[in-house]
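User: tokens in, sequence out, please.
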């Protein structure tokens, strides 16, 4: 290995998840919140023109995503998740 580190696939995946959660914590500290977790307008606009700028059940999907990530309802990583990733 070029780095001298002996990483298997799972170690790489956990490291990536740790980085992703650290980035989320940093962004949260800078004021990023649930209101910023939206889809781009091109996804919400129909190609034939006009759009509702609203996706049915988006809040439910966002809740499920947060749960999958191990974040609370505000999109902040939980203490349990941070312990799991050995961040705290």
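Assistant: Sequence out:
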């Amino acid at each position: 290995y070029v780095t001298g580190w002996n990483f298997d696939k799972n170690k790489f995946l956990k490291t990536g998840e740790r980085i992703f959660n650290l980035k989320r914590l940093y962004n949260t500290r800078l004021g990023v919140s649930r209101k910023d977790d939206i889809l781009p307008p091109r996804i919400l606009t129909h190609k034939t023109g006009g759009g509702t700028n609203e996706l049915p059940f988006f809040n439910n999907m966002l809740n499920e995503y947060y749960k999958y990530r191990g974040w609370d309802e505000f999109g902040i990583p939980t203490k349990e998740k941070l312990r799991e990733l050995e961040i705290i």
